[in-house]
Protein backbone atom coordinates (compact mmCIF):
# COMPACT_ATOMS: atom_id res chain seq x y z
CA UNK A 1 0.00 0.00 0.00
CA UNK A 2 1.13 3.52 -0.74
CA UNK A 3 1.93 5.77 2.18
CA UNK A 4 1.73 9.54 2.23
CA UNK A 5 4.46 12.07 2.93
CA UNK A 6 2.94 14.58 5.34
CA UNK A 7 3.89 18.24 5.47
CA UNK A 8 5.55 19.47 8.69
CA UNK A 9 3.17 22.42 9.02
CA UNK A 10 0.20 20.06 8.73
CA UNK A 11 1.60 17.90 11.55
CA UNK A 12 2.29 20.98 13.70
CA UNK A 13 -1.24 22.28 13.22
CA UNK A 14 -2.81 18.87 13.80
CA UNK A 15 -0.95 18.24 17.07
CA UNK A 16 -1.36 21.87 18.21
CA UNK A 17 2.42 22.30 18.27
CA UNK A 18 2.82 18.91 20.00
CA UNK A 19 0.82 20.18 22.96
CA UNK A 20 0.65 18.25 26.21
CA UNK A 21 -3.13 17.95 25.86
CA UNK A 22 -2.64 16.08 22.57
CA UNK A 23 -0.11 13.65 24.05
CA UNK A 24 -1.56 10.14 24.28
CA UNK A 25 1.46 7.99 25.08
CA UNK A 26 5.19 7.64 25.40
CA UNK A 27 7.42 4.70 24.50
CA UNK A 28 11.07 3.78 24.43
CA UNK A 29 11.68 5.53 21.12
CA UNK A 30 9.38 8.54 21.19
CA UNK A 31 6.09 10.20 22.07
CA UNK A 32 2.67 9.65 20.49
CA UNK A 33 0.23 12.50 19.88
CA UNK A 34 -3.36 12.67 18.74
CA UNK A 35 -3.73 14.94 15.72
CA UNK A 36 -6.65 16.31 13.73
CA UNK A 37 -5.11 17.10 10.38
CA UNK A 38 -6.25 20.13 8.38
CA UNK A 39 -8.14 20.67 6.18
CA UNK A 40 -10.05 17.36 6.30
CA UNK A 41 -10.08 16.98 10.09
CA UNK A 42 -8.80 13.41 9.79
CA UNK A 43 -7.96 12.00 13.23
CA UNK A 44 -4.56 10.26 13.34
CA UNK A 45 -1.83 9.24 15.75
CA UNK A 46 1.61 10.80 15.28
CA UNK A 47 4.70 9.13 16.72
CA UNK A 48 7.46 11.70 17.17
CA UNK A 49 10.71 9.77 17.34
CA UNK A 50 13.30 10.84 19.87
CA UNK A 51 16.09 12.97 18.42
CA UNK A 52 18.47 12.11 21.26
CA UNK A 53 19.74 8.88 19.66
CA UNK A 54 19.79 9.51 15.93
CA UNK A 55 21.20 6.19 14.63
CA UNK A 56 18.64 4.14 16.58
CA UNK A 57 15.69 6.35 15.67
CA UNK A 58 16.71 6.25 12.00
CA UNK A 59 16.77 2.45 12.03
CA UNK A 60 13.37 2.34 13.71
CA UNK A 61 11.97 4.85 11.24
CA UNK A 62 13.23 2.81 8.28
CA UNK A 63 11.96 -0.43 9.76
CA UNK A 64 8.40 0.83 10.09
CA UNK A 65 8.11 2.61 6.73
CA UNK A 66 9.64 -0.33 4.84
CA UNK A 67 7.66 -3.07 6.58
CA UNK A 68 4.26 -1.79 7.72
CA UNK A 69 2.90 -0.71 4.30
CA UNK A 70 3.36 -4.33 3.13
CA UNK A 71 1.18 -5.64 5.96
CA UNK A 72 -2.56 -5.40 5.30
CA UNK A 73 -4.74 -7.14 7.87
CA UNK A 74 -7.66 -6.08 10.11
CA UNK A 75 -5.59 -6.90 13.21
CA UNK A 76 -2.45 -4.98 12.18
CA UNK A 77 -2.14 -1.22 12.70
CA UNK A 78 -2.08 0.85 9.50
CA UNK A 79 0.76 3.26 8.79
CA UNK A 80 -0.72 6.18 6.87
CA UNK A 81 2.51 8.03 6.19
CA UNK A 82 5.50 9.87 7.56
CA UNK A 83 7.15 13.25 7.85
CA UNK A 84 10.82 14.27 7.85
CA UNK A 85 11.73 17.82 8.88
CA UNK A 86 15.36 18.67 9.68
CA UNK A 87 16.22 16.32 12.57
CA UNK A 88 12.59 15.39 13.15
CA UNK A 89 11.18 12.03 12.05
CA UNK A 90 7.50 11.31 12.50
CA UNK A 91 5.27 8.33 11.73
CA UNK A 92 1.54 8.79 11.14
CA UNK A 93 -0.89 5.96 11.96
CA UNK A 94 -4.63 5.39 12.01
CA UNK A 95 -5.99 6.56 15.36
CA UNK A 96 -7.15 3.91 17.82
CA UNK A 97 -10.10 5.26 19.81
CA UNK A 98 -9.76 2.92 22.78
CA UNK A 99 -6.02 3.17 23.41
CA UNK A 100 -4.07 0.07 24.45
CA UNK A 101 -5.17 -3.27 25.85
CA UNK A 102 -2.86 -2.65 28.80
CA UNK A 103 -5.00 0.30 29.89
CA UNK A 104 -8.09 -1.93 30.07
CA UNK A 105 -6.52 -4.91 31.85
CA UNK A 106 -4.21 -3.04 34.26
CA UNK A 107 -4.79 0.66 33.83
CA UNK A 108 -7.13 3.60 33.88
CA UNK A 109 -10.45 1.98 33.01
CA UNK A 110 -12.52 1.28 36.10
CA UNK A 111 -14.89 -1.34 34.67
CA UNK A 112 -13.17 -4.63 33.76
CA UNK A 113 -13.41 -6.07 30.28
CA UNK A 114 -16.15 -8.72 30.19
CA UNK A 115 -15.05 -12.23 29.30
CA UNK A 116 -16.71 -12.17 25.85
CA UNK A 117 -14.59 -9.15 24.87
CA UNK A 118 -11.41 -10.68 26.30
CA UNK A 119 -11.92 -13.83 24.26
CA UNK A 120 -12.70 -11.82 21.12
CA UNK A 121 -9.50 -9.81 21.60
CA UNK A 122 -7.35 -12.90 22.27
CA UNK A 123 -8.67 -14.50 19.07
CA UNK A 124 -8.09 -11.29 17.08
CA UNK A 125 -4.48 -11.03 18.26
CA UNK A 126 -3.93 -14.67 17.29
CA UNK A 127 -5.31 -13.98 13.80
CA UNK A 128 -2.94 -11.04 13.44
CA UNK A 129 0.11 -13.08 14.46
CA UNK A 130 -0.91 -15.95 12.13
CA UNK A 131 -0.94 -13.38 9.33
CA UNK A 132 2.53 -12.13 10.25
CA UNK A 133 4.02 -15.63 10.45
CA UNK A 134 2.20 -17.42 7.65
CA UNK A 135 0.01 -15.30 5.39
CA UNK A 136 1.79 -11.99 4.81
CA UNK A 137 4.32 -13.51 2.42
CA UNK A 138 7.11 -12.01 4.53
CA UNK A 139 7.42 -14.35 7.56
CA UNK A 140 7.50 -11.49 10.06
CA UNK A 141 8.63 -11.98 13.66
CA UNK A 142 7.22 -9.12 15.71
CA UNK A 143 9.53 -9.63 18.73
CA UNK A 144 7.70 -7.15 20.97
CA UNK A 145 4.22 -8.55 21.53
CA UNK A 146 2.77 -7.28 24.81
CA UNK A 147 -0.47 -5.77 26.08
CA UNK A 148 0.78 -2.22 25.62
CA UNK A 149 1.42 -2.86 21.91
CA UNK A 150 -2.10 -4.14 21.27
CA UNK A 151 -4.32 -1.18 20.38
CA UNK A 152 -8.12 -1.22 20.36
CA UNK A 153 -10.32 0.49 17.78
CA UNK A 154 -13.83 1.90 18.24
CA UNK A 155 -15.46 -1.56 18.44
CA UNK A 156 -12.67 -3.03 20.61
CA UNK A 157 -11.06 -4.99 17.78
CA UNK A 158 -7.34 -5.49 18.51
CA UNK A 159 -4.58 -4.21 16.26
CA UNK A 160 -0.94 -5.19 16.70
CA UNK A 161 1.33 -2.14 16.72
CA UNK A 162 4.99 -1.18 17.22
CA UNK A 163 7.02 -2.94 14.54
CA UNK A 164 10.18 -1.06 15.51
CA UNK A 165 12.20 -4.22 16.21
CA UNK A 166 10.37 -6.65 13.91
CA UNK A 167 12.41 -8.87 11.61
CA UNK A 168 11.60 -10.89 8.52
CA UNK A 169 12.92 -14.40 7.93
CA UNK A 170 14.04 -15.65 4.54
CA UNK A 171 12.31 -18.65 3.01
CA UNK A 172 14.84 -21.11 4.42
CA UNK A 173 15.49 -19.46 7.80
CA UNK A 174 14.04 -20.97 10.98
CA UNK A 175 15.82 -18.83 13.55
CA UNK A 176 17.73 -15.57 13.62
CA UNK A 177 20.61 -14.58 15.87
CA UNK A 178 20.64 -11.33 17.81
CA UNK A 179 23.16 -8.90 16.34
CA UNK A 180 24.10 -7.44 19.70
CA UNK A 181 21.93 -7.35 22.81
CA UNK A 182 18.58 -8.54 24.10
CA UNK A 183 15.54 -6.54 23.06
CA UNK A 184 12.07 -6.65 24.55
CA UNK A 185 10.12 -6.38 27.78
CA UNK A 186 10.82 -8.52 30.83
CA UNK A 187 7.96 -10.92 31.38
CA UNK A 188 7.37 -11.39 27.66
CA UNK A 189 10.87 -12.46 26.57
CA UNK A 190 11.20 -16.23 26.02
CA UNK A 191 13.97 -18.16 27.80
CA UNK A 192 15.90 -18.97 24.60
CA UNK A 193 16.68 -15.28 24.10
CA UNK A 194 18.62 -15.29 27.37
CA UNK A 195 20.24 -18.69 26.93
CA UNK A 196 20.94 -18.94 23.21
CA UNK A 197 20.59 -15.47 21.76
CA UNK A 198 18.29 -16.65 18.97
CA UNK A 199 14.70 -15.82 18.13
CA UNK A 200 12.11 -17.38 15.84
CA UNK A 201 8.37 -17.40 15.24
CA UNK A 202 8.18 -19.47 18.44
CA UNK A 203 9.48 -16.41 20.33
CA UNK A 204 6.29 -14.58 19.33
CA UNK A 205 4.29 -17.66 20.34
CA UNK A 206 5.77 -17.40 23.84
CA UNK A 207 4.91 -13.70 24.12
CA UNK A 208 1.38 -14.41 22.88
CA UNK A 209 1.00 -17.07 25.57
CA UNK A 210 1.99 -14.55 28.24
CA UNK A 211 -0.59 -12.09 26.87
CA UNK A 212 -3.28 -14.77 27.11
CA UNK A 213 -2.40 -15.63 30.72
CA UNK A 214 -2.38 -11.93 31.66
CA UNK A 215 -5.82 -11.43 30.10
CA UNK A 216 -7.26 -14.49 31.81
CA UNK A 217 -5.81 -13.68 35.24
CA UNK A 218 -5.82 -9.87 35.20
CA UNK A 219 -2.27 -10.00 36.60
CA UNK A 220 0.91 -8.61 35.05
CA UNK A 221 3.45 -11.14 33.85
CA UNK A 222 6.19 -9.28 35.73
CA UNK A 223 6.11 -6.73 38.50
CA UNK A 224 9.05 -5.56 40.61
CA UNK A 225 6.86 -5.87 43.71
CA UNK A 226 6.28 -9.60 43.23
CA UNK A 227 8.11 -11.57 45.92
CA UNK A 228 6.66 -15.07 45.60
CA UNK A 229 6.71 -17.23 42.45
CA UNK A 230 2.94 -17.73 42.68
CA UNK A 231 2.41 -14.01 42.11
CA UNK A 232 3.56 -14.49 38.51
CA UNK A 233 0.68 -15.65 36.24
CA UNK A 234 2.89 -18.22 34.50
CA UNK A 235 3.97 -19.87 37.75
CA UNK A 236 0.44 -19.67 39.14
CA UNK A 237 -1.15 -21.18 36.01
CA UNK A 238 1.39 -24.04 35.98
CA UNK A 239 0.70 -24.85 39.63
CA UNK A 240 -3.09 -24.76 39.29
CA UNK A 241 -2.97 -26.85 36.10
CA UNK A 242 -0.92 -29.55 37.83
CA UNK A 243 -3.38 -29.52 40.74
CA UNK A 244 -6.40 -29.82 38.43
CA UNK A 245 -7.97 -26.48 39.35
CA UNK A 246 -6.88 -24.07 36.56
CA UNK A 247 -10.08 -21.99 36.54
CA UNK A 248 -9.12 -20.55 39.93
CA UNK A 249 -6.71 -18.23 38.11
CA UNK A 250 -9.51 -16.41 36.21
CA UNK A 251 -9.61 -12.68 36.99
CA UNK A 252 -11.62 -12.16 40.18
CA UNK A 253 -12.97 -8.85 38.82
CA UNK A 254 -15.18 -10.91 36.47
CA UNK A 255 -17.04 -12.23 39.54
CA UNK A 256 -17.31 -15.68 38.00
CA UNK A 257 -19.05 -14.46 34.82
CA UNK A 258 -17.17 -16.27 32.06
CA UNK A 259 -17.49 -19.34 29.85
CA UNK A 260 -15.54 -22.10 31.57
CA UNK A 261 -14.82 -23.94 28.30
CA UNK A 262 -13.30 -20.85 26.68
CA UNK A 263 -11.32 -19.90 29.79
CA UNK A 264 -9.95 -23.43 30.12
CA UNK A 265 -8.99 -23.42 26.45
CA UNK A 266 -7.17 -20.08 26.91
CA UNK A 267 -5.26 -21.29 29.97
CA UNK A 268 -4.19 -24.45 28.12
CA UNK A 269 -3.12 -22.40 25.10
CA UNK A 270 -1.22 -19.99 27.36
CA UNK A 271 0.69 -22.85 29.00
CA UNK A 272 1.40 -24.61 25.69
CA UNK A 273 2.74 -21.38 24.19
CA UNK A 274 5.04 -20.66 27.13
CA UNK A 275 6.83 -24.00 27.36
CA UNK A 276 10.56 -23.54 27.90
CA UNK A 277 11.63 -25.39 24.74
CA UNK A 278 10.53 -23.63 21.53
CA UNK A 279 10.06 -26.98 19.75
CA UNK A 280 7.28 -27.93 22.18
CA UNK A 281 5.30 -24.73 21.58
CA UNK A 282 2.52 -24.84 18.98
CA UNK A 283 2.63 -22.77 15.81
CA UNK A 284 0.25 -19.83 15.67
CA UNK A 285 -2.11 -21.56 13.17
CA UNK A 286 -2.40 -24.41 15.70
CA UNK A 287 -3.03 -21.89 18.47
CA UNK A 288 -5.85 -20.30 16.47
CA UNK A 289 -7.44 -23.69 15.80
CA UNK A 290 -7.33 -24.52 19.51
CA UNK A 291 -8.93 -21.19 20.41
CA UNK A 292 -11.65 -21.90 17.85
CA UNK A 293 -12.43 -25.18 19.59
CA UNK A 294 -10.52 -27.76 17.58
CA UNK A 295 -8.90 -30.54 19.58
CA UNK A 296 -5.25 -30.98 18.66
CA UNK A 297 -2.99 -33.67 20.07
CA UNK A 298 -0.36 -31.59 21.82
CA UNK A 299 1.53 -32.61 24.92
CA UNK A 300 1.62 -30.02 27.67
CA UNK A 301 4.82 -30.30 29.65
CA UNK A 302 4.19 -28.46 32.90
CA UNK A 303 7.81 -27.65 33.58
CA UNK A 304 9.76 -26.26 36.47
CA UNK A 305 9.63 -22.54 35.83
CA UNK A 306 12.79 -20.45 36.30
CA UNK A 307 12.91 -18.92 39.77
CA UNK A 308 13.05 -15.18 40.16
CA UNK A 309 16.14 -14.16 42.09
CA UNK A 310 15.41 -11.13 44.25
CA UNK A 311 19.11 -10.26 44.24
CA UNK A 312 19.34 -10.14 40.46
CA UNK A 313 19.32 -6.44 39.64
CA UNK A 314 18.57 -7.09 35.98
CA UNK A 315 15.22 -8.57 36.98
CA UNK A 316 14.30 -6.20 39.78
CA UNK A 317 12.24 -4.06 37.43
CA UNK A 318 10.70 -4.55 34.04
CA UNK A 319 13.02 -2.33 32.10
CA UNK A 320 16.61 -1.93 31.04
CA UNK A 321 18.22 1.19 29.68
CA UNK A 322 20.93 0.54 27.13
CA UNK A 323 22.59 3.90 27.59
CA UNK A 324 23.65 3.47 31.21
CA UNK A 325 23.12 -0.22 31.90
CA UNK A 326 20.81 0.56 34.81
CA UNK A 327 17.42 -0.95 35.41
CA UNK A 328 14.66 1.65 35.15
CA UNK A 329 10.87 1.41 34.68
CA UNK A 330 8.78 0.49 31.56
CA UNK A 331 10.22 -1.58 28.76
CA UNK A 332 13.78 -2.18 27.79
CA UNK A 333 15.01 -1.68 24.29
CA UNK A 334 18.65 -2.40 23.64
CA UNK A 335 21.14 -2.10 20.85
CA UNK A 336 19.84 -4.58 18.31
CA UNK A 337 20.00 -2.20 15.36
CA UNK A 338 17.55 -3.92 13.01
CA UNK A 339 20.13 -4.53 10.36
CA UNK A 340 18.79 -6.34 7.36
From TrEMBL:
<feature type="binding site">
    <location>
        <position position="47"/>
    </location>
    <ligand>
        <name>ATP</name>
    </ligand>
</feature>
<dbReference type="GO" id="GO:0005524">
    <property type="term" value="F:ATP binding"/>
</dbReference>
<dbReference type="InterPro" id="IPR017441">
    <property type="entry name" value="Protein_kinase_ATP_BS"/>
</dbReference>
<feature type="domain" description="Protein kinase">
    <location>
        <begin position="18"/>
        <end position="300"/>
    </location>
</feature>
<dbReference type="GO" id="GO:0006955">
    <property type="term" value="P:immune response"/>
</dbReference>
<keyword id="KW-0418">Kinase</keyword>
<dbReference type="InterPro" id="IPR011009">
    <property type="entry name" value="Kinase-like_dom_sf"/>
</dbReference>
<keyword id="KW-0547">Nucleotide-binding</keyword>
<dbReference type="GO" id="GO:0007165">
    <property type="term" value="P:signal transduction"/>
</dbReference>
<dbReference type="GO" id="GO:0005886">
    <property type="term" value="C:plasma membrane"/>
</dbReference>
<protein>
    <recommendedName>
        <fullName>Protein kinase domain-containing protein</fullName>
    </recommendedName>
</protein>
<dbReference type="Pfam" id="PF00069">
    <property type="entry name" value="Pkinase"/>
</dbReference>
<dbReference type="GO" id="GO:0004674">
    <property type="term" value="F:protein serine/threonine kinase activity"/>
</dbReference>
<keyword id="KW-0808">Transferase</keyword>
<dbReference type="InterPro" id="IPR000719">
    <property type="entry name" value="Prot_kinase_dom"/>
</dbReference>
<keyword id="KW-0723">Serine/threonine-protein kinase</keyword>
<keyword id="KW-0067">ATP-binding</keyword>
Amino acid sequence: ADIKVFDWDTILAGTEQFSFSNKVGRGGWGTVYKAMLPPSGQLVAVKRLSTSSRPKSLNIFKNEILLLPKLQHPNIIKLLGYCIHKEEKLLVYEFMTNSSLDSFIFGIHKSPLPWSLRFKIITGIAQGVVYLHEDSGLRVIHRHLKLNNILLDFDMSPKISDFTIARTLTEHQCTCELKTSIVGTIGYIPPEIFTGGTFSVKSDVYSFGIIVLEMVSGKKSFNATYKEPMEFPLHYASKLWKEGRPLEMVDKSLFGVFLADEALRCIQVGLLCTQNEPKYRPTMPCVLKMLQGQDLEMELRVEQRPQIDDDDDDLSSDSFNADDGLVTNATFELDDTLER
